[in-house]
Amino acid sequence: MSFEFFPQPNIILQIGKVSFYFYGAMYALSAFSAYFITKYWVKKMKIENCSNDDVLDIVFWSLVSGVIGGRFGYMLIYNFENFIRDPFSAFTVWNGGMSIHGGLLGGAIGFYLVTKIKKMDILQFSDISVVSIAFGMALGRLGNFVNKELVGRETTVPWGIDFGDGLMRHPSQLYAMGKDLILLSIFWYILIKISEYKQNKTINSGYVFSAFLMMYAMFRFIVEFFREPDPQLGFIFLNFSMGQILSVVLFTIGAFSFLLLKILKILKKRVI
């Protein structure tokens, strides 16, 4: 049986007729890293009654529901006609097509259900989850770059790349990856400061996750200006893509949740 490393740019290893794809490896690495990152912050934030098995369950089911949400989000938003014509095409994940916004929604549902069943503080866990989410999305964008998908718009900048169509384009996947790594750095720093501040005080949970949604939406909105709109949709409103429209919705959700937490905090103080 033959073994071959990198027989194609998007395939890491081929054993006989079995191929292991780079994009799939990024998913596996995302899950692996999410477990250890979450475990680290559970200890750092001194979250009680949370075993390693609990962390594994949260990461696993959040990832599974995130993949399902990302796939169905893509089919419903970006490929609806094909979905209506062939609903089972939603399960052909090997053909590509994932929606980050759908993935966030799906992952949030799975995350909520697991933490609810285990009777854990969902707001506290949502705050520490942002660094794992940011790192996972960065790995996903690296996979997009290797697969030469979600390419950028035409450009004359010196770092433009030909993705196979003879046109020089922005490496928008790398821009998006950079955006995610910036978010990772920002919120890692924020969580460190919160962990230090919590030594003597109680910190209200949920604000970090709400802020993450807003910042991700803003960064994604900007990066979309360099990405080629999905050919089946084009520009949705004026010169704005579907990704930008969804980012506005996501920002609104983040802002609403932030204000709601503020209101609940004020009401709680009045009751006390």
Ordered list of secondary-structure elements with their pairings:
Blueprint: E1 3-8, E2 11-15, E3 18-21, H1 22-44, H2 52-77, H3 80-85, H4 100-117, H5 122-146, E4 161-162, E5 168-169, H6 172-197, H7 207-223, H8 242-271
Antiparallel strand pairs: 1-2, 2-3, 4-5
Helix pairs in contact: 1-2, 1-5, 2-4, 4-5, 5-6, 5-7, 6-7, 7-8
Please characterize this protein's 3D structure.
With 272 residues, the chain is mainly α. It has one domain (22-271). The protein contains eight helices and five strands, in the order βββαααααββααα. The strands form two sheets. The chain has a three-stranded antiparallel β-sheet with strand order 1-2-3. Strands 4-5 form a two-stranded antiparallel sheet. β1 (3-8) and β2 (11-15) form a beta hairpin. α1 (22-44) packs across α2 (52-77) and α5 runs parallel beside α7.
**Domain module tally:** 1
The secondary-structure element order is EEEHHHHHEEHHH
Helix content: 55-70%
Percentage of β-strand residues? 5-15%
E-strand count? 5
In short:
By secondary structure, the protein is mostly helical. Helix content is 63%, strand content 7%.
What are the key terms here?
three-stranded antiparallel sheet, globular, 272 residues, single chain, 5 strands, two-stranded antiparallel ribbon, 63% helix, mainly alpha
